[in-house]
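Reviewers of the previous submission asked for a worked example of the structure-prediction workflow described in the proposal, so we include one complete record here. The input consisted solely of the amino acid sequence. No template or homolog information was supplied to the procedure at any stage.
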Amino acid sequence: MDQTLEAPQAAAQPTQSQSIAVDIYDQIYNLRGTDPAYIERLAAIVDAKMRAVAALGNTVDSLRVAVLAALNIADELCTARQRFDNLNGTIQNSQHSTRTRATTLAHMLDEVLEDRKVG
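From that input alone, the workflow returned the following structure tokens.
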């Protein structure tokens, strides 16, 4: 199976795609991507998840193990996204509160300075 995978990159730099063979649940997959270490890390995650699912169940059907592992990974992804969204909302609320407080303090400081000019 040939598949191209791309690692998230901080800056868009054209790099040469490389072929790498990975072992996932005793099957070899030939993948292509720009970051072999990233591909190996992804493959290790999938392999570990499949082995964990297989150890908990009593199925030997690798397709069923793969689907259950994919569901577990999808659940982890959804949970992480929800946590991210919650944290992002908290940060946005905090930023709004900080801006509001800063504006209030700036107005109070302006009033004090204005009073000093007059008095």
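The mean pLDDT is 88. We consider this example representative of the routine output the project will generate in years two and three.
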